[in-house]
Amino acid sequence: QVRLIESGGGSVQAGESLRLSCAVSSDSFSDLDVGWFRQAPGRDREFLATFRVTTDTAATAGDVKGRFTISRDNAKNTIYLQMNSLQPEDPATYYCAAVSIAGNLYLPTRPSKYDYWGQGIQVTVSS
């Protein structure tokens, strides 16, 4: 079983930064792809970034590439999403998700590819 707990959300001013954390409880953390998604009111769930633990490789959505960075903590089973220069279009509920890499040659980007989900955390940006 895999359990995901997000933290680090909150309210910031436009132009400021946040770092979201996804704490992963799993017996096979190294066999996971761990991704970040967001969903704004009235919108579909949007892929942001994903990280393949075993190879330390990442993929980031083009819309946020250069502002958002996904990474892994060196000492614990935690995946971060560093969000810089937050903008008015960024507020949403942010979700951490995970799936086994078995059968996935490429890093998955569709929400339907992920089997485990956190509860989501809110990010708000004010001007």
Write a structural description.
This protein is mostly beta strands and 127 residues long. The protein is built from no helices and 11 strands. The strands form 2 sheets. Strands 2, 4, 5, 6, 9, 10 and 11 form a 7-stranded mixed sheet that branches. The chain starts with a strand and ends with a strand. The mean pLDDT is 95.
Number of helices in the DSSP assignment = 0
Query: What is the typical, i.e. mean, pLDDT?
Result: 95
Oligomer: single chain
- Net shape: globular
Instruction: State the distance separating the first and last CA atoms.
Output: 41 Å
Main sheet: strands, sense, barrel: 7 strands, mixed
Radius of gyration: 14 Å
The computed structural class is mainly beta
Low-pLDDT stretches are none
Secondary-structure element string: EEEEEEEEEEE
Q: What is the count of β-strands?
A: 11
**Share of β-strand residues:** over 45%
Q: Roughly what percent helix? A: under 10%
Keywords:
seven-stranded mixed sheet, 127 residues
Secondary structure elements and their pairing?
Layout: E1 3-7, E2 10-13, E3 18-25, E4 32-39, E5 46-52, E6 57-60, E7 68-72, E8 78-83, E9 92-100, E10 116-117, E11 121-126
Parallel strand pairs: 2-11
Antiparallel strand pairs: 1-3, 3-8, 4-5, 4-9, 5-6, 7-8, 9-10, 9-11
